[in-house]
Amino acid sequence: MLMLVLTLCAAITCSESISAADVIQRGKKDIDLILIELHMPTIDGYEFLQFLHKEQINIPFIGM
């Protein structure tokens, strides 16, 4: 049997990778998942993932 559970969630959006990095560093304990576009301006998604690894931020992510 499959059960679906209603959960409340909030989304934080950032238009630039630099601001996303700042948001993640400040609120990493409150963030459960990162949805990241791989082709972003300034820092692309691959560089952003390297930043997460370097900063030891272990939040699951979905790249698209």
Structural overview:
The chain has two helices and two strands. The longest helix is centred in the middle third of the chain and has 11 residues, at 17-27. The chain is globular. It has helices at 17-27, 45-54; strands at residues 34-36, 61-63. Strands 1-2 form a two-stranded parallel ribbon. Helix content is 33%, strand content 9%. The chain starts with 16 loop residues before the first helix and ends with a strand. The chain has one domain (17-63). β1, α2 (45-54) and β2 (61-63) form a beta-alpha-beta unit. The protein is α+β, with helices and mostly antiparallel strands and 64 residues long. The mean pLDDT is 84.
